[in-house]
Structures are given as C-alpha cells and as structure tokens.
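Take a look at the protein record below with the fold in mind.
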Amino acid sequence: MLKHVPSLFQHLPAEKAASLTLDTAEPVSREFMVKLLQFYKTNQCKDLLPIKTVKKIIKDSEKLLHTMPALLEIDIADDEEIVIVGDIHGQLFDLMNIIDLIGEPAKRCKYIFNGDFVDRGAWGMECLMILLGYLVAYPGTVWLLRGNHEEESVNATYGFRTEVLNKYNEDTYQAIQGVFKWLPVAAVLNKSIAIMHGGIGTGDFRLEDIRDLERHNATAYDGVISHLLWSDPQEEDGCTDNPRGISVMWGPDVTKQFLKNNSLDLIIRSHECIMEGYTDCHDHSVITVFSAPNYCDVQMNLGAVVVLSGADILKPEYKLFKAVPHPEPDDFLIGQLLQPF
C-alpha cells in the first residue's frame, strides 16, 4: 500500500511565486505557458506550482471541456500539420523535450495528446498542468483525448492519487477527476482518420454512437467507452479476450469493417509500449504511437510522435526520440511502475 508522505515535496514559497507571476491574476495564455515550462525546466521540480495556479488551470480547463463534444471533428488545412502524441505517463522531461523538438503549438502546428498523461511516472501532476494549460491557452489548436489512465480507480492503483495527495490534497485530486470525466474520448481528422487511445474493440458501433455519449456519466469499463480506452489490436481475425481484463483484442477483419461502416481510412491509437516508438498493423490501417521513451526508466524503448500534413493527411511521418536526463524521482511510486496496464 502506498503511503501519503506530506514531507516529500516543498511548496513554492510565496516570494518565489510572486516573482514568477504565475498566479490567478494572470490568464492562462501563450505567455503564461512559456513561463510555466521555463519554471519546470529551471526549477527541476524541486518546488511545486502554487496551489492557486493549479486551481486556476483546473477550473479553466474544465470549463472549456464542458463545451466540447465526446467526438472531436477536426479539419486540418493543406498548409497545416497536426502532431499526435501518445502515452506520456508522468515523464515530464520527455514531454518538454517533445515540445522542444517539434515546437510550441501554433496555427500551423497543432497537437492531439492521445491520453495516459499520468500514473507510473513521478511527474504526472506537472505533465497535466502543462497539457491542461495548453488546452486553455491554444483553443482550436491543442486537444486532449482521454486514456484508460484518466480514471479514478486506475489512478488509485498506479500512483497518480498518491502523487497528488503528496503534492497537494484530496480536493485537488477530486477536481482533476472531474476534468478527466469531461475529456473527449475520440477524434476524427479530415473525415478520414479516427484517433482514440485504445482502439475500436468489437467495432460494432459507429461514429454517431461516440457523438451521443454522455461521457461524464459513463463508466470506462463497459460499452463503447471501454473499447475506445482499453482495447488492443491482434493479428488474427475476430475478437478475443483482452489480457487487460477489459474490452477485447480485435483483428484486421474488424478494422476493415469498422473503417468501411464509418467511411474512414485509418486508425491512430496509443496504449501500448512499442520498442521502436511506433508500429502499424492490419495492412497499415492501424498505427500505434507511444511517446514515453525508456518507459518507467527500464524499458529502453524509443519514443515517437505522428506528424500529419493537411495536404497529404494519409501519409504520416514519424519523429523518433530517446529519453532525456531527469532528476532522480522520489521513491513513493516504486512498486507501481511495472504493473500491467
């Protein structure tokens, strides 16, 4: 059982917070986000972001998420690119490296972060503040999709709950769970590419079924949402039990029928640690991208992102990267890092 150890983390002193001007008086803007990333880079997570700033980011992001549908329908112009980022799992310094490598969000460089922002890594809270901040600061440019780890019962097992209680408090944790419930669960790009964290599962649903989801009231362990968050592809036709214990593994015949039924060409998903950072299957119609290099500091995998150009949306490019150095994490998550999921 993980323990709540209040002395692990040092809250940012009031005078330091004032000097950063990261407070509730400042809107979550592009300028704010530049300061936030610089704070994390220079501070190296020795101090925590002020609680007032955390509350503001959570409040502003949830308000925005309430206006979004369960299924995002995004159009990318010919002169624009969109970057699909896979699992991050609290690897803050690798997340900041992705931004350094690809560039900040911009009108012609948009981002979808495809779930599993937290758990396992030591800095899920910091990753979440950056991602929710980007969502608010760059509306119509940055989108977040829900993963299976944006879920309270999973967070209670795989580290994020303990992290938030150690760094902040129960109220903060519950406020974040409120945000997770409102995250969109899938996206469609240029009417041809479906993006979700897990996959299509049994595939016996249509895009309309995702549009109609009341995601904030739905369970993550049953029905369409369970497939979108939890399922995995397999090489054999049909569906088989998923070793994760939730949803199924689905075969190329299921992919082919789902794409046909929904007039789509491609599926991009995450959810699995891939040694090369990305892979494809089902006759190149399903792409898996994983963006947490050297996962849990032991897997030695590369990280990757998918870059799609509006001018040629069905010809993905891949950016690969290795893990970057990071401070020694506190040991309060040890024992959680290598559990399945």
Observations:
- Residues 85 and 113 are 5 Å apart (CA to CA).
- The first strand starts at residue 10 and ends at 11.
- Confidence is low (pLDDT under 50) at residues 1-15, 332-341.
- DSSP finds eleven helices and 16 strands in the chain.
